[in-house]
Amino acid sequence: IRLSGKYTGEPREYLAGNGKGKYSVADIGTWPWVKGWSFSGLQEEDMKPFPHLMKWIDRIAERPAVKRGTGDKYSQ
């Protein structure tokens, strides 16, 4: 709901900060838990009501530092 802007009228890009938000420790700490939604038994159909959340997951994943930190070097 926070990302959708339901109560502010403006969709947000990040969890904390004014306006569209600012990438912060809130995103850094939350993203690893939320990105694995499929491992919890949820299906894509279950996530359709949350398009802003899905965009947020993708947005964080595309950040260069996140890519470095979750790349193949760390999967070994």
UniProtKB/TrEMBL annotation:
Domain of life: Eukaryota
Domain GST C-terminal: 1-76
Classification via Gene3D superfamilies: 1.20.1050.10
Classification via PROSITE patterns: GST_CTER (PS50405)
Name recorded for this polypeptide: GST C-terminal domain-containing protein
